[in-house]
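Exercise (ungraded).
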Amino acid sequence: MKSLTKFMDSFGAILLAIIWIAPLLFAFWAATHSTSDAVNLNLFSPWTLENFRVAWSGAPWLKYFINTFLLVTVILIGQFFLTTLAGFAFAQLQFPGKDFVFILVLMQLFILPEVLIVENYAMISRLGLFDTILGVGMPYMASAFGIFLMRQAFKGVPIELHEAARIEGCGLLGILWRVYVPLAKPTYLAYALVSVSTHWNNFLWPLIVTNSPETRPLTVGLSIFGAPENGVDISIISAATLMSVAPLLIAFLIFQRQFVQAFLRAGIK
Amino acid sequence: MSAHANLERRRQAIYGWLLLSPAAVLLTLFAFYPSIATLWSSMFSRGTRRKPTEFVGTENYAELFADPTFWLVVKNNLLYAGVTIPVSIFIALSMALWANGKIRARGFVRTAYFTPTVLPMIAAANLWLFFYTPGLGVLDQIGSLFGLPSVNWLGQPETALWAIIIVTIWKEAGFFMIFYLAALQTIPEDLKEAADIEGASRWTYTRRIVLPLLMPTTLFIAVNAMINSVKLIDHLFILTKGGPSDASKLILYYIWEMAFAFFDAPSAAAMTIMVIAVLGIVAAVQFFYLDKRTHYQ
């Protein structure tokens, strides 16, 4: 009886797992076969990389990759800089108005940047940042979530270390840089993984703010490439899709544990 | 001595504001000012070349309330939330219970569940396109094995929104699973042993012990799922574009369309304000719950 339930558990779990990755497997199948073999699920048909070749030459993918890479880097640097300073101020300094400002910051957690697309677009245009990578990244840099995360991390640093550094003659910024930042490394890593995978995948805002292949990130490029007007077939779309998710997917498969830990840490705190 | 303390206090205040200022500037530019500007512009008419914008009070809101498309979109979004939230929570919980148990191929199972989380929604939509395409798609191929007719899942009003809902559930369930998984691992083993000694069935143990202990996690996930039901609309751009005849249009997509396809910024602003109001209520619930949870510990 017991072994039967155990078997049923494994069976159910594995069945669901197969259903869950089926879309990815089918895309892989479609991308590596000719279109007619792919749609007929012809199991003994020959494998081919032709679809990848066609997809690659159909759009400036290299440029899109570079844009996405620059975008996530710019956002991450901005976020690290801003959230470190603000998180430290909230965690370790006493000043009038702190609590009020902190509540304002927390409010931003619920006013999603996605919702304010219209006014943010107007703001980006006013700043002359329309169709620039900086313009895509800027609204996300002062992340309330990141400030909150850093504040929590810095609060956990023992005050004795702070005092010791001060007695050694370290200034406030020196203490932040030499004591707090190194101790918060796990939080930085978690935040980096969450931030990079969020912005690698972001679509709506980049769609609005970019207008040329020079700035377009992968997600926007992929949506344009796959648009029905372009008449590309399912095998080639699958190849393009796999190409654009490959770097993040491979990184995830290698550093799976770190990814899951990062999402957990970022979510629960 | 007091002069020294005073100096120190002033120094902290100056440093505090200096350190905050870069974040404060950006938050003002991209969160606070836009929120107020949205509220402001939702109360002005749409300007044309002949007629400049003028103050119209709540007229934009009244116009929206009189617009049947708006109500259809609201209804769609309520259905979208009403299905995706409970179903993805249920699936996430089942996944976590399985992935936490002693099953075969556990590593593979966990990876498979979590993988959709790291894919862009646009890519997910492309993958699912291969399932939904009439005639060629995998669903139709499976259906034809059983002699079922070809169905245009994305092309008919009755099924389009459901096709969207399934993609969303697929995308978020694995993400929610990890929170349950973490929570399950904090449940002490002896509770299970005690339940076994008492002769409690597995179902009783799950229902009376595990589920109550997971309640804070469930609330946390529910809030996240609610936010996602506003935010996750990228796949609409690939799969249906809100069609056919608005049957799968969701609020954020409608806002985007209003502002960037119909150039009707005031209506978009009025809708944005309503979404912010709803999110505010969610935030209030969240704060209430956070209070409770800290009380718990």
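Further reading is listed at the end of the chapter. For now, observe: Chain A has a mean pLDDT of 86. Residues 61-92 of chain A form the longest helix (32 residues).
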